[in-house]
Every structure is written in structure tokens, then in C-alpha cells.
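User: Hey, my collaborator sent me this sequence without any context and asked if I could get a structure. I don't really work with proteins. Can you help?
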Amino acid sequence: MSEPQPRARVKQMPEYHPPLGNRDSLRLDFNENTLACSPAVLEALRNISAADLTRYPEREPVEALAAKHLGLRPEQVILTNGVDEAIHILCQAFLDQGDELLLPVPTYTMYEIYASSTDATICRVPAGPDFSFPYKSLLTSISPKTKLIAIANPNSPTGSVATREQIIAIAQAAPQSVILVDEAYFHFYGQTVIDLVGQLPNLIVARTFSKAYGLASLRIGLLAGPESLLKWTRRVLSPYSVNSIALTALTAALNDQSYLNWYVAQVKQARVDFLAALTQLDLQYWPTEANFVLVDIGTAHKEFCASMRNHGILVRDRSADPGCDGLVRITIGTHEQMQQAVAAIQQFKASQFTGVSA
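Assistant: No problem. I've predicted the 3D structure and written it out in C-alpha cell form, which is a compact way to encode the shape of the chain:
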């Protein structure tokens, strides 16, 4: 008996399966805030009433607050259900048959997954051997068919960055393309192009509140761009995709800049110390501007991840990514958390010499 079949593109889409594990462990695998959200967020959530839950959410007032926070106008900002939804609606709004997504790789998986649901072609541009941003290769790959260029800055899983000058040059070289600059890890880098929104007519910047702000479970992200472009994404965006609890939490988080600054400072100092520890452990890693680092474990990468899990620490095996065989990504949390990670890595390395399981 026949049954309904999906579109051919859906059949061909890659599937994303987030790693499962003991989520009560030290989570150094998803680049989340490893500590807590602002206490102001918890207080705001406590004040939500039963009546508040009966109403449909209204994102516009919080969009205006977020826009002011970023130095933009309200019509230049859209709040989304995480950056994943932001990527999805950009693909739905701008990618058609005959179009191309230009994608430096390795990078965040969801760009390719959402683009593969459209009738566009994905054109991958490999990073160099040092995982540096493939600026020249990307420029030469631009064609009249290029409709969307996705640049994670800093990039995951590598931690590498594209410079402001490179992004401007790419936007100018591809005026027919939407240039998405995903600044999910902006706070740990400190450099942005969001001030160019409106100046570069094809630039759209994404931000998330899942990382530094610690609101990953509430799923809230943001697109900032020219009104002339965002009006099309609004057409394919659900009017209620960002729930009222997330909006309440975001309002409180944006109003507590001191807590955000404190957490980011903790992570940046821990990053310096952890990279120094990796050097002492004679482990190769790549320079990073994010709250994670890509480490070369080699052929024992699976055993390493299992060993870390046995020590109550989750890390992310990135061996399946292009050019990443044997590489593991480790999120950077607080100094105390990274001391715990260093101790577990030391035990794993010791086990490699003795042959005893760690």
C-alpha cells in the first residue's frame, strides 16, 4: 500500500542528531554558558503569573529593547526561536532553484541542513590547513548564482574569524547575495559588524542568547539587517515562534549587563589558562576567539571522549566535520571547571602510556 511521500529535497536532507548523554555532567560539548543565567532572569521568571501564560506572546516591545541595546532601529531587528530559526527563515526567504549557498567549511551544521531543504545548491569552500577563514577562495567562488553566503564569526568548530575588512569586501563583491554573519560567539571575541547594518545593503547579522547569556533552553536569537531584507523574512516567520517566557527572560538579561560582563571575563581568563595547560600537555590546538577550542587528539578521539565522560565531563567529537579527523571541541567555562577538565585530560594521557583505561 502506498503512503504519502515528502518532497525529494526532504528525502535527501542530512539529519541532525544532537549527542545524548548525562546532561548533569559538566557540559563542555555545546558551547553553552556553563554556569548560570543572570539572577535577574530568575527573578523575572518568578514573577510570571498564571494569567501571563494565557496570552499570546508579543515580541515587538522586546525587539525594540534589543534594537536599542544594539544601537539599531526596531524595524532592523527580528527576534527568532534561536539562531536555528533565523537560518531557516533566511533560507526559505531567499534560496530558490538555481541559487547557491556559499559556505566556508567546516562550520555550523545547520546552515547546510536548512539550505538542503530548499532547491538551491550548496557550494562548500574548504578552510586552509590551519582552519583560517578561506577569504580568497570564497571571493573567487562567488558567481551570479550566489544568493546567500553564511559566515560564522567566530566560526564553530574552529574558533577562527573573518576580519571586518574581509566581510565588507565579500559583501561588495556579491551585491546580489545576502551576507549572513553569525555572531553567536561575539561576546568572547569582542569585534562585530553589526554597526554596518543599514550601511551594507546586503548584510544581515545573527546573534544568540544561548551562549554568553545562558538562555539556551528558552531558544531565543536575533536577526539584524536592513528593513528592505527583513520584511521578506517576516513573511515566513511564525508570529508566535518566540514564547512569552523567553521574552520575559531576555528583557531581564539585557538589563543586567554587569552579570554578562562578569561571566564573559571569567571565560576569557579561563581560556588563556586552559590553552596554556594544553600547551604544557603537548596537545595541538588551534587559536580561538570563541568560548571553545578545537584540540587534536588523533586516532584515540573516541576513547578520549569516553574517558572524559567517565570523569563527568562531556566534550564534542568533531571528527566527522570536513578536515577534522581526530579533532575534539572543548567548551571553555570557568577557571574551576577548566581545572577539572585539565585533570581529566592528564589522567587520559597517563592512561595512554600505561595502557590502563582512564
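In plain terms: The chain has a mean pLDDT of 95. You can pass these C-alpha cells on to your collaborator as they are.
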